[in-house]
């Protein structure tokens, strides 16, 4: 069995930035966001089922899923949200398990933004949290995503709180400083995970 380190954090905490440093050290990544997109790519059974339920207007002109329209469909409709989750969650889970099992390396980094929100705490051997203050998240989200302060605040409010994430974390990377400081923290953690993975084997 592969030793699994889950990497999580709120929007713009720096998950991708930290994950890239692990990747440069040769750690295989399994990215929950990428899997969630791939299970509804053009040609998949899941996308056909979504079209069968909502009609062709759920697609963009290139035949791919119109996520904005789908989000609207499930936004205030609990029944639709449940239907979609019951379609996608098993597929995402299956694909995630497959990729983790076939990852080459002493341990795998599972990048999963909604780790706390989706109650995945028992699904990893260790949870690494990328932590910054909400103020830093807001400032970075406004710049990266070109959204307003209010929009960024809404996204933050829809996610788990900093305290909820900290309560589940085994390790924390403080990403409020210069990006270069992450390298030192990640190098230290990598060494620790190699040791933990060796004992786990
Ligand atoms: P996440 O994957 O958690 O949403 P990203 O890694 O994409 O976050 O980082 C969000 C934004 O903040 C990006 O534009 C990134 O370049 C920037 N960023 C990340 N870490 C730092 C840092 N330590 N200092 C300044 N900007 C940062």
From TrEMBL:
Binding site for ATP: 12-17
Superkingdom of origin organism: Bacteria
InterPro entries, per the entry: Depp_CoAkinase, P-loop_NTPase
GO CC, alphabetical: cytoplasm
Record-listed E.C. numbers: 2.7.1.24
GO molecular function, a single term: ATP binding
Pathway: Cofactor biosynthesis; coenzyme A biosynthesis; CoA from (R)-pantothenate: step 5/5
Uppermost EC category: transferase
Alphabetized UniProt keyword annotations: ATP-binding, Coenzyme A biosynthesis, Cytoplasm, Kinase, Nucleotide-binding, Transferase
HAMAP family hit by this protein: Dephospho_CoA_kinase
Protein function: Catalyzes the phosphorylation of the 3'-hydroxyl group of dephosphocoenzyme A to form coenzyme A.
The protein's name: Dephospho-CoA kinase
Organism: Candidatus Fukatsuia symbiotica
Lineage: Bacteria, Pseudomonadati, Pseudomonadota, Gammaproteobacteria, Enterobacterales
């Amino acid at each position: 069995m592969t030793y699994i380190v889950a990497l999580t954090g709120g929007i713009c905490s720096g998950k991708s930035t930290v994950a890239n440093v692990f990747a440069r050290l040769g750690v295989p990544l399994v990215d929950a966001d990428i899997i969630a997109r791939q299970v509804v790519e053009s040609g998949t059974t899941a996308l056909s089922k979504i079209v069968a339920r909502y009609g062709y207007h759920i697609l963009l002109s290139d035949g791919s899923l119109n996520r904005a329209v789908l989000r609207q469909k499930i936004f205030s409709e609990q029944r639709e949200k449940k239907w979609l989750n019951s379609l996608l969650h098993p597929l995402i889970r299956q694909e995630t398990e497959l990729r983790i099992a076939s990852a080459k390396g002493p341990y795998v980094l599972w990048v999963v933004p909604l780790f706390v929100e989706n109650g995945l705490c028992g699904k990893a051997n260790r949870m690494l949290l990328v932590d910054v203050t909400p103020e830093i998240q807001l400032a970075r989200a406004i710049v990266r995503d070109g959204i307003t302060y209010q929009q960024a605040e809404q996204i933050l409010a829809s996610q788990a709180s900093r305290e909820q994430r900290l309560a589940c974390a085994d390790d924390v990377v403080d990403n409020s400083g210069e990006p270069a400081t992450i390298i030192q923290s990640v190098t230290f953690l990598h060494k620790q995970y190699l040791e933990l993975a060796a004992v786990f084997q």
